[in-house]
Automatic annotation (TrEMBL):
Residues 785-794 have a biased composition (Polar residues). This is Uncharacterized protein. Residues 318-328 have a biased composition (Basic and acidic residues). Residues 318-340, 734-798 are annotated as: Disordered. Residues 329-338 have a biased composition (Pro residues).
Amino acid sequence: MIATALAALVPPGDVVEVRALSDRFTHSGYFDDLTRCAEAVAALDADPDLKGIYITLNRVDPALLARRANRVKMRLSRSDPTTSDADILSRRWLPVDLDPVRPSGVSSTDDEHEAALRKADEIALWLSDRGFPAPIRADSGNGAHLLYAVDLANDDGGLVKGVLTTLDALFSDEHVTVDTANSNPARIWKLYGTCSRKGDHTPERPHRRARMLSVPGEVEAVSLDLLRSIAALLPTEAPAPTSKGIDLGRWLSEHGIGVRSTRPWQGGTLYVLEDCPFSGAHHDGAFAIQFPSGAVHAGCHHASCGGGVQRWPELREKHEPKKKREEVPPPPPPPSPAPEVREWAMEILTYADPLRFLLDTFNREHVGDRIVAECLVMSLASQSVENTNGLHVSVSGTSGKGKSHACTTMLRQVPEGYRMAGSVSNKALYYHDDLRAGTVFLFDDVSLSDDLQEVLKAATANFRQRIEHRTVTPDRKLQVCRIPDRCVWWLARVEDPGDDQVMNRMLTVWIDDSVEQDARVLAHMKEAEAREDGGDGEDADLPICRAVWDILKEERLHVSVPYAGRIQFTVTANRRNPGILFDLIKASALLHRFQREEYDGGIRANRQDFETAARIYAAINGESGGQETKLTKNEAAALETVAAMGWTQFTIRMLQSALGLSYHQTYRILNGYTSRGTTYSGLLEKCPAVSYFDTMITEDGPGQVVRRREHLFSFDPAVYRRWAFGAGVWIDEGDDDDRDGGPGPSDPSSIPAGLPRDGSAGREVESVGNGSGSLSTSTDRETRLSLSTGVQQHTHAHERTGVGAGVCGCGCEPRNDESDPPISAEHGERRERAAHLGPLADAAPRNPLKNGGSAERILQDPLPGVLEHAEFTRVSTDLGRCTLCGEGRAVFVSEDRRTRLCEGCYARLVRAWNVQKGIA
């Protein structure tokens, strides 16, 4: 029987893995000789300790034969791999497993076993009525199997899972369930002819031998169309709610509709009905589902009743024919801004700096995170640029550090009719009839399912086009639902979404979770709590911000970048990143569209737009994000720590000690992990400077020598520097006319008579000075304009980077040097006034060791920021004992040679630096 089963399931010459499971061990072998395979399985089956013997159903990579060629290795170790999903070349079978409901770890009773076999016959008949060919029918020993031949790729787009999910919804009950976990390609399957030994063999729950019940004479593959038709019968996501506040369970009870069973399904509840309310020809097959959103789907799996199509409106009308149900009126159009508010917004767009005005309004409610806010503003501006692919934003960082608050604060500046926040099911967006082109979708700590990521990929890849979804109405007519064009997506998450195709289309920016930011937020909270005016009302500038976006959303302009040919990139491996820079330039120009040079049908971006875009691009490729590297903040800090420690080789425990994280957290940073079906890559996959190999470590134990395996990671600092710091952009200067002129927002010559030129008009300004560039709480129109036209100035001890002319390497506002145009007296006065309103950033802590401080006294009570790890160098010469602990051998020495640190104390220093940077 074993040889017959192998011949039916495995084509000649293909490689198959045999895997036998016991309580403590796994045995495995790979075979392309089915005769030898049957012999090996028969020998395994004689072992009474084995719980079951399984094989891979789908086509395995032939290279895996070399792991254990035509032999079974007993008691696999952790280093012995078995077949993974990535090792499957294609799918050969659609596996339907009917499992009786019973306690885990025991065999089924005869009644439970028979119930599973009857359910298999019921499903096979139902699928046959819909055109499915005959399957292999089998007895698994405890339940029943149906195997349908298919010809699908490894990545089938969720088709097998969709079919199993439909069968689960339509046929699973309190006695027998359809196992939906069998959808992954490398799933192993009970080998017929072998014994199933779950728990002890008892008269009531005996061990049985798995066997094939019937095999068709010619195995015919199920067509794609048939598979898709079954997968699409039931919604795996909620339809649009058609009922307001209905409790489906109560509704069924109140109208005398009997419920046979209930169970969780897709986050909601599935009700299996006692009788079919749609037909008297049968009693079984009817169901109703209530989704978490409140939406209801009802139907019957019999073909005469529509085969599972939506019939809830019909069912409700049948039981409530005379009751006039309240219709939910469509939402009224958002009110237009008051004329004076629109006038103020227009003046800011025409004569001031709208970007700065929007950011300052943002920072009065949310402290810091200026780069995050700029990315969100540029995302909004990109919606009105004709020739753009759209800018979408992924904000990541430690939980509780302000990701959600930053996004919701900026979302409040968007007109109400263009914003949507909260959780939605996979395709619910398609069913929102009132969605507008240019809507902002905010997903706040929402786990993106595979289907929702597919929606996101489609919407971001086709930004300028509507995205369509085709479905069937209750009367079985085609219905086309759409997500409008030019929608942008904001994701606020602890980690990145996991899908590289999603991340490549987004601005990836980190929230500021440093200790300094914590202090600023706390100070801001204290200031707000101390206010006596309540402080709960809406900021007076928010209506103006919404009016700004109302005006800009009326625009749809082509933006040209005349100097595009002279923009240079140090790295172009990811071809989407240069496009992101160009889109940032266009978004900046669109924000200043009333101040840019126009031509027929569009505007020209000027050099200031490049400087703004290059500054943001530099920030999200450095201190504020991982645009090019796709690193999370913790991953970037881990690499900086390894570089700072001077390691060329390290272990997880070494890095754990330096980071101050748990072993589990450090392991995930290096190796990645899988959560809720989504795989998150680690540094081993992301960074070419990091690799690892297995090694054996010998340690002296009490009276013995202990040897253990260890992963030893290697680090190439030269490769790391080239890879991590290579995302620079600049403009090659030339003699040609770029035609990138046009007045900038801070050009005093562009401000007409009657508007303030020196920033002194209007009411007295209240300085905020929170370190984030937030300037004023004034609501006076002229004061707003004067502050928005001013440009703050500050100096730095460090050199400018090569990200573009006039761009400061720290990511602050552009500053003037010899290449900038002359500053008029009036303009200079306005800048001077703005500079006194509040610092852009807190002053960096001074190092007492550089200013005559006592190293001995400082080391007695070391504080974060007193010693800087960057001042120390690893040396190989004998330095004596550590200055700090007095015990360890010193291997690091400071620049002045006065301070010596051992490996452990230097790690503490780096760890304190990590805490300052907000490593969680």
